Amino acid sequence: MSASEMNASEMNSVAVVNQARAMVYRLLSSLFAKEVDHQLLHELTGEQAQAFLAQLASEPAFKQDIDTLISVLNTLKTDKALLELAADYCGLFLVGTKHSASPYASLYLNETGSETPLFGEQHQQMVQFLKQSQLQVQTSFPEPADHIAVILAYAEHICLNSGDAEQLKFIESYLNTWLGNFAAKVTQCDTGTFYSALARLTQSWVTSDLEGLSQTTH
Amino acid sequence: MKWIINIWRTLTKPAKFLTLGSVSISAFLMGIIFWGGFNTALEATNTEEFCISCHSMESMPYKELQETVHWSNHSGVRATCPDCHVPHNWSRKIARKMEASHDVWGWMLQTVNTPEKFEEKRLEMASREWKRFDRDNSLACKNCHNYDSMKWESMSKLAQKQMKRAAELDQSCIDCHKGIAHKLPDMGTSRAPELIAQVGSGESAPQVEQTYFSALTKPLYFNEKTDVEAGTLNIATKVKVLETKGNRVKIGIDGWRKKIGAGRVIYFDFGLNILSAQLSKDAALEEGVMEVFEEKEDPLTGLKWQRVEAKIWTDKDYLVTDLQPLWDYARETYSTSCSVCHTQPAEAHFDANTWPGMFQGMIAFVNMDQDTQALVQKYLQEHSSTFDKSAH
Amino acid sequence: MKRRDFLKGLVSTSYVVLSGASVLAPLNALAAAGAKKDDGWLTTGSHFGAFKMKRKNGVIDQVIPFDSDKYPSDMINGVKGLVYNPSRVRYPMVRLDFLLNGHKSNTSQRGDFRFVRVTWDKALHLLKDSLDEVQTKYGPSGLHAGQTGWRATGQLHSCTSHMQRAIGMHGNFVKKIGDYSTGAGQTILPYILGSTEVYAQGTSWSLILEESDTIILWSNDPYKNLQVGWNAETHESYAYLAQLKEKVKQGKIRVISIDPVVTKTQKYLGCEQLYVNPQTDVALMLGIAHEMVTKNLHDTKFIEGYSLGFDQFLPYLMGESDGVAKTPEWASEITSVSPEIIRDLAKVMTKGRTQMLMGWCIQRQQHGEQPYWMAAVLATMIGQIGLPGGGISYGHHYSSIGVPSSGAAAPGAFPRNLDEDQKPIFDSNDFKGASSTIPVARWIDSILEPGKTIDANGSKVTFPDIKMMVFSGNNPWNHHQDRNRMKQAFHKLECVVSIDVNWTATCRFSDIVLPACTTFERNDIDIYGSYANRGLLAMQKMVEPLYESLSDFEIFTRFAAVLGKEKEYTRGMSEKDWLVKLYNDCKAANAGKFEMPDFEGFWKEGYVYFGEGKPWTRHADFREDPEINPLGTPSGLIEIFSRKIAQYGYDDCPGHPTWMEKAERSHGGPGSNKFPVWMQSCHPDKRLHSQMCESAEFRETYAVKGREPVYMSPADAKQRGIKSGDIVRVFNDRGQLLAGAVVSNNYPQGVIRIQEGAWYGPVGADGSKEGGAKVGALCSYGDPNTLTMDIGTSKLAQACSAYTCLVDFEKYKGKVPEVSSFSGPIETQI
Predict the structure, then answer these.
(1) What residue stretch is flagged as signal peptide (chain C) (predicted)?
(2) Residues B295, B212: one domain?
(3) Which of B291, B320, B349 marks a domain boundary?
(4) Percent of chain B scored above 90 by pLDDT?
């Protein structure tokens, strides 16, 4: 089905769907980009977000992990609890490689594995993608461009700006190829439950999104 | 105060620093008037050409000037050769000066007509100019740069400290600001311009029976006339002036010597390897130079030491009355230079006889001329645990 | 269309879920253009060499040696791996329990627990609060900010200077004296030869090549060690080594390497080896000396004219004082060198011109003062000190020593000390009866036994009660001995702060960890050619500081701002101002002697060349006139017997060089029946100490199964059923480690080598992931200091004794843990 064949309502419907998908990618990107702070917690436990998450949880593949996220979020009543979650985040994503789940595509896609130098090939590729879309990584986010939060944010961007085929190709090649290993590493290394749930949710979301995209493109 | 020299050296580069010297309007006008007057008066003798005829030949001083802020700056004031090198109260002295200068320049014409020859003579020529600046308290500078109109608040804290001190004393600018319009001469390894800038070049007329300290390592002579050296007087050594004749003084150096070799080396005190003076073999054996007193054995080496007093001649310059400025300079140099690679040990961490070994073994990356090295070593020795019993 | 409905349902819940900014931003055209400007080659330098770099899309791409470096080290291939290392310290971090409980935190978790990211502002305030607490509660004796070591190169950003100036503006602290490399040597030699010798310029190689008939490399491997330098190294010594190789081949110079091991240098030169039992060099030297006296080969005239105390040494040598004549036979028993060879050596060394070149390893052992002293005595007996190609050197394997210095003035540095008129906020100098300066290697003793008084170099040192440590660009969890003992000490510390580039073990055992950028992410200047001082190098920034790392200048300027002393700290000058000032000061110091362009010209060119130096002979002036040019010894002469040392009355360092048995010694020595193998932990071939170990790709060029190699003899390997490539457990009563076996004919039975600088990666004692913080942990990578002994060399130097170390080893059959050294803190449940 090409755009010219679509009627206005269908077009509107496609836009709404892509907006929803973008929103999910945005949510996932935000949670991988930094620790949950008071602001983010406030938003995530707000009525709108809860409704959003509840709707997401209506899909059985997502339910268990969303329930975990919600229940952890509900325990974050104190600064200490937030710090503990921040320490989980730090141990997984900020400090190292071997005994953590560094969030860089390159570490999962190269033979040298967890000790691949960063800012390598995958970083360069992402920089090129971003540049083509007139984008760059925020200066306040001083990370290589193959950081999962960047890739998810770019997925958000293309949901709204690119055709399904292009979306499918990007998400398949630049996210799905390593997401499984990443999610497994997070699950293995996480001392808490929040980020392993988030990683698994991301994986099942991407799986389901790719299924959907492949249906629309065939 | 190395930094002050460094700061003024930067004067030669970025133009914005000219405001440091705060060129006052009145001085500016004076310069214009003076310049015009000068040209008119000396047109007949073609002085401008006369300057260049010599200085363009090797072209160095003139070119060097052109690279400095005294040549080009945002206020458009330019200092040219005669501004600095011809006395400003010229109306009275011009005739005599010109005569004298003519001789000098004529002589120079033959002796500095190649860059090599010029470099060779640079120190000598510069020294003559510095002396002249010293005599009139850097009047040529002060015609434009006025202590009273300096803007303290736009100077760094350290610059303020230095400049205010200088202003209080109406100090001669050239004391610190050497080499700003031309390249500094090669001061050799034996002279320490920064040190001298800080402690001065000594009393103009040392008094008999007074004690002084050497501000540099100085040559010793057999008598008041000869150029034959009889040894060296180490830096920061206490001497007593016994007699003065012309540019020379006869001094007495008290100390101890080891009874080895010809006993030519005089040390600060018994058993302490703190160098005061070294005499040549001839001088050490010369009748009347070295008077020997009692003898003691140093239990730490088994060497016999003798108390001595040497009476010998030296130039009357670089003899200062106060030792403290030398120590201040040494302390600061030690703290700055010896912490480049590692934390410098406290002065009192070692004893006087250990310091030379430690110090000499660590100076590979340290920039110190030989005078400064000798001074810092002596400073460390005289502030070592041998003297400072409060050591950790 | 279920999916579509589901997604539409999502939208209906809310349009705006998150207000936070995306990690993406619109492309900034200017920035993009800037990043595209990858220009040409940029110049910079490091301990591993001066080099040039090219970028691709703003990322370091190619690294090639500096033009004048004709013998570059392959270590520059590791540079990219350093910068883009996945275990960079990316953000300021604080150990969670420390953040929650401050100085009352559970310190046993240190080294194995949870960190959280904090802002720079928060981190620097935490640092200030901790310093406040320690200064208020304990005064300056509670703080040790004096453990410093090899920084990265660069005179402006020299990390130890910045740290000590900034911390010094807050308050006073305990400092160190000496260093780990040459602790015993630099303490004993001023008594003997009147200078530390180890860091002094030495006789020029060209003169050695011309004049020497015999060169003795004593425990010395210059071909390995000259790869790295204190400044930007340009490896000029290698040209002379190449000439020496040629002369050896032509039979013009005889080079003898006295060493238990076949060294890299020996192999390169194709020279002879004289095997000696480990730690027995003094006995060998005494045997040689005895033979010289017996055969009257020694230069009595030189001894008389230039030294003191030979008479007091002779009775010991000949056995009159202790009943044991130090004959070649006596020495042979201890050293395994035959009496004939010892006799021959005495003859060879006194015939023709003999240059002794001493390495540093043999002074990093118990009684490490003695081999250096005795070697000086031998050189005195030979009588060629001060002659070109003769005498003794303690530094020709280091930083281009022996390459004539250009004589130019080197640049100064950002000041380490407070300016003259500045005072710290906490200006107390009350160390509560303890010493304000302690011997560098005794800090763990000090933490464990505060108040104890020890002898050190003729005075008494009372250990301060240290509660807080601040490290910057310093990794004592590499260079100090006995990890398990260090852990016990660290449990007693209230606060540990580390500023570094990558997650070193020291960072992991810290509470506050601050990210410094690498030397390639900042502008700086340095000399190149180390001791040759061949020129001045522009160290041009290759890339902006990665993550939230900052330059040392920036880190401590911000910290000074927290103290309200920013302007005092920087003197109101920016980084650029300082760079220009350091350059202009250097230019001024060289005025009239060495032409230097203005700063812009220099920066554009990338370097200033100072020219060649003049060949020079060490101690020639002393030889020419010992009265006018005395040595810095108490007598001014070479002191074969030191009355000064004798009067200290030290049992482990008497008044003349003495053979003393070691606490542990292989080949029949004490402890060898239990742990029969001597482990040498020499300076690494492929690193500068622990710098560069983390560079993964480069590490893989030498690692064995991802572990540090342990080199061993075929005999030892066979006896234990080990072959190259096996994972080996090396152990003694102090600790255990895993390493990868390399079986090599270069090693004799009873000797293994694990190079120091191998990053500590503790895991549980049984190889499990957990328990690395505990005493008894297994090092998963192979840090030899897991096994070494933490004792002073003697009461004189109190230096490190890493080379007095016996171990045993076996093929590892347990659970093989992942290497944990290079992955930041490991989180485990305690």
Answers:
(1) 1-31
(2) yes
(3) B320
(4) 32
Q: List, for residues C31-84, the tens digit of each pLDDT value.
A: 655 555 667 899 999 999 999 999 988 899 999 999 999 999 999 999 999 999
Is residue B58 located within the same domain as residue B159?
yes
Consult the annotation and say whether B338 binds a ligand.
yes
Chains in contact with B, counting 3 or more C-beta pairs less than 8 Å apart as contact: C
Would the annotation count B182 as a binding residue?
no
Q: Which of A187-196, B382-391, C317-326 has the lowest mean pLDDT?
A: B382-391
Find chains touching chain C: ≥3 CB pairs under 8 Å.
Answer: A, B
What is the pLDDT, as a whole number, of residue C650? Answer: 98
Read off the pLDDT of each residue in C305-321 and give the average, rounded to a whole number.
Answer: 97
A119: amino acid identity, one letter: F
The whole domain housing B237 covers 201-320
Question: Does residue C631 belong to the interface with chain B, where contact is any CB pair within 8 Å?
Answer: yes
Residue A188 in tokens: 């293995």
- Touching status, chains B and A (3+ beta-carbon pairs under 8 Å): no
Contact residues on chain A for C3, CB-CB shorter than 8 A: 208, 211-212, 215
**Backbone phi and psi for residue A83, each to the nearest 5 degrees, phi listed first:** -65, -40
Per the rule left: phi > 0, alpha: psi between -120 and 50, beta: everything else, B288 is left
Q: Provide, as residue numbers in chain A, all residues whose Cβ is less than 8 Å from the Cβ of C99.
A: 83
How are beta strands C677-680 and C751-753 bridged, if at all? parallel
Tens digits of residue pLDDT in C471-506: 999 999 999 999 999 999 999 999 999 999 999 999
CA distance linking residue C397 with residue C229, whole number of Å: 10
Are both B214 and B129 inside the same structural domain?
no
Q: Tens of pLDDT along A75-94?
A: 999 999 999 999 999 999 99
Q: Dig out the tokens for C673 from the structure.
A: 């029946």
Give yes or no: residues B307 and B333 share one domain: no
The reply to whether B296 and B338 lie within a common domain is: no
A1 and C CB contact within 8 Å: no
On whether B342 is known to bind a ligand per the annotation, the reply is yes
Is B248 a domain residue?
yes
- Which amino acid is residue C657, in one-letter code? P
Of C158, C177, C199, which has the smallest distance from its Cβ to B345's Cβ? C177
**Does residue A205 sit at the C interface (CB-CB below 8 Å)?**
no
Report the residue from A89, A131, A212 with minimal CB separation from C27. Answer: A131
For C226, list phi and psi in degrees, rounded to 5: -75, 0
Asked if C632 has any chain B CB less than 8 Å from its own CB, the reply is yes
Between positions 583 and 612 of C, the ones with CB within 8 A of B are 584-589, 591-593, 598-599
Number of H helices, E strands in chain B: 15, 10
pLDDT band, residue C651 (cuts 50/70/90): very high
First and final CA of chain B: distance in angstroms? 28
C303: enclosing H helix or E strand: helix C300-306
Do B316 and B327 have their domain in common?
no
A127 shares contact with chain C (CB less than 8 Å): yes
**Residue B34 domain flag:** no
Say if residue B306 is in the same domain as residue B349: no
Q: Is B194 among the domain residues? A: no
Q: What is the mean pLDDT of residues B286-296?
A: 93
Q: In whole angstroms, what is the distance from residue C695 CA to residue C63 CA?
A: 15
Number of domains in chain B: 3
C636/B343 Cβ within 8 A: no
Residue B70, annotated as binding a ligand? no
| Mean pLDDT for chain C overall | 94
A80–C100 C-beta distance less than 8 A: yes
Confidence bin at B184 (pLDDT 50/70/90): low
Assembly ipTM: 0.94
Q: Chain B contacts of C191, Cβ < 8 Å? A: 354, 357
Question: Quick one: B278 and B305 in the same domain?
Answer: yes
B117 confidence band (pLDDT: 50, 70, 90):
low
